[in-house]
Predict the 3D structure of the following.
Amino acid sequence: MAQHLAPASPADIGAALALLQCAFPAAAMDAVTAKANVRAYALALEGVPAFALDEAARRILRGEAGLKHAFMPTPPQLRDIANEASRPARWHAVQLRRLLDAEVEREVSEEERARVAARFREILPN
C-alpha cells in the first residue's frame, strides 16, 4: 500500500502534464513563462501519488472532474482532483496501519475468570 501511495516522480508529473497539454492547447509562452508554469504544477503536485495523478487526468479527459472543458486545469484544480482520486486509498492505508499497530488482546482462560469472579465475591457485599 505504501508503494501505491508513493509520490509521483517528476517524470510521472511531466507525462500527465504533457497529456493534458495536448488535450488543452494553450497560447504560446516564452521560455521563462513556460518554465514558471511547469514549476507551478510541480509544486502543486508534490506528494501526489502517481496513480492519483493518472486518475485525475483520466477524469479530466472524460469530463468527469466538474471542470469547463475548454481550458487546462490550474495547478490547484489538478491537485484537488488528484487528492480526491487518492482519498479512498489513503483511508484504507490508515485503516490497515491501525490494524497492524493494534495490540492483540490475550485470551483469558476459564480458570482465570473463575479466580477473578471468586475474588470479586469476596470483596463485594451481598
The chain has one domain: 10-123. Residues 10-123 form one domain. The mean pLDDT is 89.
